[in-house]
Input
Amino acid sequence: MSKDTIRILSTKKLTPSQKELLLNAGIAITDVDFIEITPLEFNIKQPVENAIFTSKNAVKAVVDKNIVIKNCFCVGDKTSELISEQGWKVLESAYQADKLAEKIIQSHADKNFVFFCTQRRREELPEMLQRNKIGFTEIETYNSNLKPQLVTTGFDGILFFSPSAVESFAQNNLFEDFTAFSIGKTTEKALKKHTNNIITANKTTIENVIVQAIKYYST
Output
């Protein structure tokens, strides 16, 4: 490997096709999970009329329970795709949780919702719904456990896909001498506590984060 080769660390394991995008661009990739997903036990009355999902992990947890859902409101293209694969209807989607909350407030304020979330969920969406007196019940479906790792190799860029991954990375490492690539605004907000050298994807997908890194280093 040339000493001039760009080296990138992903804070979550990537699929072979995702790695291939970087390798084909001449970028060396190391991927390590800084977060461990643990399913939680939960029970809920069925069917669910209106469900809110802000992550694929919550969708997967609900699928495993064979819960019947009529309408879905979700964050992210990949979450929407996974929902559609189950045959569930996506009524509203957005790239950020606060934008989804705005759509719910504007067009669905008369509905009641079940918010399937993680124990470490962000505050923006539930706070906005509460302020606007929209009825919802929170169901914790999984937990994102931190898996701090000490990074001893120098990297030019590091890919972050959640605020929890930022928190996990920060426990053992400094944010110096690399560019941080963020999947979205909430992850960017967490990164700004440590660095201003941030590039944020314009779509909340892993592939778009990778594309942003490739574009950055190709110029």
Observations:
- The domain at 6-34+147-218 is CATH 3.40.50.10090 (Rossmann fold).
- The helical segments are 16-24, 56-64, 77-85, 97-107, 124-131, 163-172, 185-191, 206-218.
